[in-house]
């Protein structure tokens, strides 16, 4: 039986296929050039494949792992035709991602905890952090969960205003203070309000300035410490939002944030407008942190729960 069972609804799958179109066409045009005139996968084809993967923003370390897996397969099977390369890539990359992603979520869900489930959202400005929070609030609300938002990115008036727009759109309460307030104080107020309102999920936005990692680390540590005065286990999740269209820059941001705080999950946004979709594979593999959500369009429904098999199937299926 194929690994690639269908988990998604056809509508979600269509959105995913469309969202990855640029990445896919760029990848396959490079791959076609690499194997033109070749009938079997040999060292030369593997060298060319390595270059295709690296230039598709999969990242050097992950690319080398993929090449090693394919080399082992070629050695075992003695002969592998270039016509099999697409399906081999799908299988080997799915196998690699399976090492980071255990089990497959298909819906927006949060674990049951005593009190509200608190998600602290981190990431640099401009990556789609506020939009991701808004879309998550929409998905959780749609399930009948009571959601509260906290505007703890107090360094940008635009961040607070943007979050207010999303709160109004989704119909959920937003806890905020004036610009320049102490972010930890906003987090404290948000969790206090969430307890009073018997909220199920709390999403806390935080400042995304990376110019000084020590400051960032101190601020996030303080926000966490103050949250724990209200909800002892908070935050239950630290979600790092990365802009997929920045390619290798997303790797660097992941490196900085994972040093500054304990990141437990990732969201990769803006995949629909870029040919750099391979970054999802590399980031997922290198940081050993599960990619939980991907953004494949601007619509409110275009944030999807990341499913490795569906992603790899869409990315490496040339027929679509």
From TrEMBL:
It comes from the Bacteria. It is an enzyme of class 3 (hydrolase). Residues 290-303 form the SRP54-type proteins GTP-binding domain. It is found in: Cell membrane; Cytoplasm. SMART domains: AAA (SM00382), SRP54 (SM00962), SRP54_N (SM00963). Pfam families: SRP54 (PF00448), SRP54_N (PF02881). Keywords: Cell membrane, Cytoplasm, GTP-binding, Hydrolase, Membrane, Nucleotide-binding, Receptor. InterPro entries: AAA+_ATPase, P-loop_NTPase, Signal_recog_particl_SRP54_hlx, SR_rcpt_FtsY, SRP/SRP_N, SRP54_GTPase_dom, SRP54_N_sf. The keyword Nucleotide-binding applies. Belongs to the GTP-binding SRP family. FtsY subfamily. Involved in targeting and insertion of nascent membrane proteins into the cytoplasmic membrane. Acts as a receptor for the complex formed by the signal recognition particle (SRP) and the ribosome-nascent chain (RNC). This is Signal recognition particle receptor FtsY.
């Amino acid at each position: 039986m194929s690994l690639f069972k269908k988990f998604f609804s056809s509508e979600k799958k269509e959105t995913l296929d469309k969202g990855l179109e640029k990445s896919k066409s760029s990848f396959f045009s490079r791959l076609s050039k690499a194997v033109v005139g070749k009938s079997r996968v040999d060292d030369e084809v593997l060298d060319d494949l390595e270059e295709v993967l690296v230039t598709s923003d999969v990242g050097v370390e992950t690319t080398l792992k993929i090449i090693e897996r394919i080399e082992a397969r070629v050695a075992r099977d003695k002969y592998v035709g270039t016509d099999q390369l697409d399906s081999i890539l799908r299988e080997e990359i799915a196998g690699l991602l399976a090492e980071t992603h255990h089990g497959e979520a298909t819906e927006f869900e949060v674990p049951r905890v005593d009190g509200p489930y608190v998600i602290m959202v981190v990431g640099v400005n401009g990556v789609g952090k506020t939009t991701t929070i808004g879309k998550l609030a929409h998905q959780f609300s749609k399930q009948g969960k009571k959601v509260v938002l906290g505007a703890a990115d107090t360094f940008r008036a635009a961040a607070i205003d943007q979050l207010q727009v999303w709160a109004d759109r989704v119909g959920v309460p937003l806890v905020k203070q004036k610009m320049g307030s102490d972010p930890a104080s906003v987090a404290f107020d948000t969790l206090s309000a969430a307890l009073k309102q018997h909220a199920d999920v709390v999403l806390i936005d935080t400042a995304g300035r990376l110019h000084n990692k020590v400051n960032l680390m101190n601020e996030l540590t303080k926000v966490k410490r103050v949250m724990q005065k209200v909800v002892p286990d908070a935050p239950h999740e630290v979600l790092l939002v990365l802009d997929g269209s920045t390619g290798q820059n997303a790797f660097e941001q992941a490196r900085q944030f994972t040093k500054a705080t304990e990141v437990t999950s990732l969201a990769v946004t803006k995949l629909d407008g870029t040919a750099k979709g391979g970054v999802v594979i590399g980031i997922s593999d290198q940081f050993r942190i599960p990619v939980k959500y991907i953004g494949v369009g601007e619509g409110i429904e275009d944030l999807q729960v990341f499913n490795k098999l569906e992603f790899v199937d869409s990315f490496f299926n040339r027929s679509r």
